[in-house]
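To assess whether ligand presence alters the predicted conformation, the chain was also submitted together with zinc ion. Input:
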Amino acid sequence: MPIKGVKLCGAKCRTKGGASCLQPGMKNGRCKMHGGCFYKKEIHGRSTLRAKAERKKEHAFLREMKSLLLDMEQLNED
Ligand SMILES: [Zn+2]
């Protein structure tokens, strides 16, 4: 039963013919069945927020290095 003032989850149910979920949502917008575990996020491992941010930074660095390398190769060809 939906609670007034709380945003509903709205995830698509696979069992109810694609109807959207009517459970009240948590902070992340999904209910406890569909939102996953979000209150114990920062523990350890590869899916913590910190690990994700670090990986993102590393990817950006690698991309920058790659473009730099391409630039250098182009300079050498000229
Ligand atoms: Zn839900």
